[in-house]
């Protein structure tokens, strides 16, 4: 059994309308969730496949960090899918600095966050003092690097170029990988 703590305002999302989301997570991840809505503590107990059960705490954590349940459940779709958090607070000196750094990650009208999603194919959510990512290890790594570049003060243009380069690299590798048998190089 594992315990995960999530913010009070995300408990309703985890439970879902009439307990629907909670039941869906329990069924798909083969776990039992015991949610304490007073303090935000969630006990995750594996009742079925232990490998699926290992993903359940990350699903709960992802919902707790602002992801919609559908996005968090993607962690079960592929064993390569992973959840990662970047602590913005660790890079900030004070509350004003935290706000500024969070603003840099979000970008004007949410454009920077959107570009991170579009160019990597990962899901990206900024909630509280964290940037959460759900994707393959490569996608998560690219988003983390881009976020760290922005937190270190890199110009947005530099980060966008980095993201575009990585996007093209992934696209090129994908084309190489999916070449049909018998084709000539």
UniProtKB/TrEMBL annotation:
Protein name according to UniProt: RNA-processing protein
Annotated ranges, domain K Homology: 1-81, 82-152
CDD domains: KH-I_Dim2p_like_rpt1, KH-I_Dim2p_like_rpt2
Keywords of the record: RNA-binding
MF terms (GO), sorted A to Z: RNA binding
Keyword set includes Secreted: no
Presence of the UniProt keyword Protein transport in the record: no
Signal sequence bounds: none
SUPFAM superfamilies in the record: Eukaryotic type KH-domain (KH-domain type I) (SSF54791)
Annotated source species: Natronorubrum sulfidifaciens JCM 14089
Record-linked InterPro entries: KH_dom (IPR004087), KH_dom_type_1 (IPR004088), KH_dom_type_1_sf (IPR036612), KH_domain_protein_archaea (IPR019964), KH_PNO1_2nd (IPR055211)
Pfam families named in the record: KH_1, KH_PNO1_2nd
